[in-house]
Specification:
This protein has 375 residues and is α/β, with parallel strands linked by helices. It has 2 domains: 2-178 and 351-364, Rossmann fold, CATH 3.40.50.11820; 183-347, CDP-glycerol glycerophosphotransferase, C-terminal domain (Rossmann fold, 3-Layer(aba) Sandwich). It has 15 helices and 12 strands. It has helices spanning 5-21, 42-54, 73-85, 97-100, 136-141, 156-166, 179-185, 187-200, 224-228, 281-287, 299-305, 312-315, 324-332, 340-347, 355-364, and strands at residues 29-34, 59-64, 89-92, 109-112, 150-152, 173-174, 208-212, 236-240, 256-258, 273-276, 292-295, 320-321. The strands form 2 sheets. The chain has a 6-stranded parallel β-sheet with strand order 2-1-3-4-5-6, sandwiched between helices. The protein has a 6-stranded parallel β-sheet with strand order 9-8-7-10-11-12, sandwiched between helices. The longest helix has 17 residues, at 5-21.
Length: 375
């Protein structure tokens, strides 16, 4: 109880400041807020451009506020409160305190576009009380994932997952997808990106690329060297995409190329094979028809610490094993997974229209378009 008192006091102070900010006039702008990135993501960039195409008078404001320095948090909060109070709409890609905790103008639209196309592992409300999730009391005080006008999902199947993880009514979920779908399906963009990455990382043209993109673990390093030691590096180049928050994994094998792209999906353009564990990058890879291999070396432990939203054995679009040697063998003898296309079709349905344009129309419309499908 006592640990919650400072939070409640801080929220009360913030609410008072925000009440004053709401006196200011609303501007013709849409504010984008992320606490996971220090840069403007592909999703935000594409949606911002679509908004300005749809209505030239509306401008986009991007607030990228990663939780890297606690002393910066109050300053970030003040900036967020000002822009939220004076915006016609707000777009977020994760939980944002200023959005969920405060009381907003009734006409403010808040759109949640999650920073992935789906979820293998539990998050949000479905991870409450677990070692890798939030404490229940904290989630209650911080009003986890509240105040959303819309949550955009790329499929009905993903909408069902979002209903649970966000704790939101199905009437607020819209099948409008994500701008990253447009990015991944743009063959010209992907080819340009592939050429750039091939040159940047000096990838020989006679070798295939294995991208290893594991999910984040709060306190556990990832045994990268164990995997690489099993892969024939005369045939394959191994790229590692470390999670930005991972400061525990140490790589000693010089054959591993540690990438520095801002987003994991940027690396899919050059990937011929994807090795992961429980990362949502699987959903994005399915759009590019990239073979996926699941190295689940800590599956039982992770199931307890975080939990899963999908049935691995029934749905994973690729081989599943806890053996690095088996992963290497599967890559060397790659065969198409019979579940790959079915997985992509089930979890990403919004491939027949421009997702960024659709979301821009949603944010700028006076009312929800009657002909749009909700989950």
């Amino acid at each position: 109880m006592f640990t919650r008192l400072p939070l409640r006091f801080a929220i009360a102070v913030a609410s008072g400041i925000y009440a004053l900010a709401k006196i200011l006039p609303v501007q013709d702008k849409v504010t984008f807020i992320s606490r996971g990135n220090s840069f403007t993501s592909i999703d935000f960039q594409l949606l911002g451009e679509a908004i300005e195409r749809e209505r030239a008078s509306t401008h986009a404001v991007f607030l990228n506020h990663p939780l890297s320095s606690l002393w910066k948090v109050p300053f970030h909060m003040v900036a967020e409160m000002y822009h939220v109070a004076t915006s016609r709409a707000v777009v977020i890609d994760t939980y944002i305190v200023a959005v969920s905790v405060l009381k907003h103008r009734p006409q403010l639209k808040v759109l949640q576009i999650w920073h992935a196309l789906g979820a293998f592992k539990a998050f949000g409300r479905m991870a409450i009380g677990r070692a890798e999730g939030s404490a229940e009391g904290l989630a209650q005080v911080m009003r986890m994932h509240e105040n959303y006008t819309y949550v955009s999902a790329p499929s009905a199947a993903t909408a069902a997952v979002y209903r649970q993880c966000f704790g939101i009514d199905e009437s607020r979920i819209v099948l409008a997808g994500s701008p990253r779908v447009d990015y991944l399906l743009n063959d010209e963009t992907q080819q340009t990106q592939r050429e750039m990455l091939t040159e940047k990382y000096e990838i020989p043209h006679d070798r295939k690329v294995v991208l290893f993109a594991p999910t984040f673990r709060k306190n556990s390093p990832i045994p990268v060297d164990e995997l690489v030691s099993q892969i024939d590096t005369n045939r394959f180049v191994v790229l590692l995409r470390k999670h930005p928050l991972d400061d525990r994994t140490v790589v000693s094998d010089p054959r591993v190329i540690i990438t520095d792209e801002s987003e994991g999906i940027e690396l899919l353009a050059v990937a011929d094979h994807l090795v992961t564990d429980y990362s949502a990058i699987v959903f994005e890879a399915s759009l590019r028809n990239i073979p996926v291999y699941f190295w689940t070396f800590d599956r039982e432990e992770y199931a307890v610490k975080r939990g899963f939203m999908l049935d691995f054995d029934a749905e994973a679009p690729g081989p599943i094993t806890d053996s690095a040697a088996e992963i290497a063998h599967e890559i060397a003898t790659a065969k198409p997974s019979p579940r790959s296309s079915a997985f992509a079709s089930k979890y990403v349905e919004t491939t027949h229209f421009n997702n960024a344009d659709r979301l821009a129309q949603l944010l700028l419309a006076a009312d929800f378009p009657a002909d749009w499908a909700r989950s």
